[in-house]
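Dear colleague,

Thank you for sharing your sequence with our group. We've completed the structure prediction you requested, and as agreed, I am returning the results in plain text so they can be pasted directly into your records. Please verify that the sequence below matches your submission; if there's any discrepancy, let me know and we will rerun it promptly.
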Amino acid sequence: MKDPYTHITRAGGSFACINSGKGFVSYFDTFLEKIQFLYIIKGGPGTGKSGLMAYIARKAEERGEDVWRIWCSSDPDSLDGVILRKRQIAIVDGTAPHVAEPHIPGVDSEILNLGAFWDGKKLQEHRRTVEKLNQEKSDAYGRAFSLLRAAESLLEVHINLLSRYINKESMARTVKRILCTDGLRCEPSPVLTVPLCSIGMQGSICLEPYIQEAKKILTLPRFYGVDLLLLEELRKNAEKFGIAALVSPDPLTLYPDSLYLVKKGILIRRGEPLSLTNEKALSLRRLAALPKGDEKKYLRELEKRENDLWNLAQKEFIGISKHHFEIEKIYGSAMDFSAVDRAKETLEESVFS
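Please find the predicted structure tokens below.
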């Protein structure tokens, strides 16, 4: 399968959820594990949730603070959350599909409801339109996820067939050379999942937040799925030997799509070469003795059909944007954004006091 992603070098952020071949998958718990106080923002689409979080992120950066942005996997220009890492404070969008609720209200969490600032009667005038748009949006999501599941099923068949041709000794040597596991003891795993790739209303997007800080970059070409199997072996061995790593899952299979070795400063990624001085493009041909004749044609046919299904799913996700932004426009027309601005200032005082 050819690289379907638009790669974006965007430091200091990731997704927390992804649209995948296994449905909508959330990794929010990974990001909130060490949080001491959680602000949960409620409200409909277009009510200013993302703008409020962006405001707090800017104010934190103006103070020189360490900010991690959580981008929306369906709309990568919008935020699902902001984490102030040194303060151990998070502000998140607590609406579906990643619903969040307070654990101990007022003690470790607090709700800010932007729905308090809309004109309910004005919204109710658009009830039938909003219901229709929501149903069309839901139907499109259903079709998109069905197509992704079909593509994922084909890729699993593909990987199962490919695994018979992997040179296990060569794979093991490559993993050992990259991770430098000689002499290391098995320890508890510090491997964390940090999603960087997703498919949504802007198509297929892959964030690249570690490009600037990585000391060394190893780029893997997409080679019949051998790249996925190598990354999976790297993940398993990082867990086995307790090597700190951040893993981004592939949206189709949730196999690793990239892996960042934190202490070593090594980024292993799939995609086209970046032509950077600290980058090396790895050849994967020695890792698999690929079949010839009909079986090789079969692998190519599987890849083609996976790619076709992915493109059809992408078309559905992009089409959702029309319904989504029409709903946002309706909600936005009923909002008192001056009240939202005052809420921003109140939240700023609460966060930084």
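Summary note from our side: The first strand starts at residue 6 and ends at 8.

Kind regards,
the structure core
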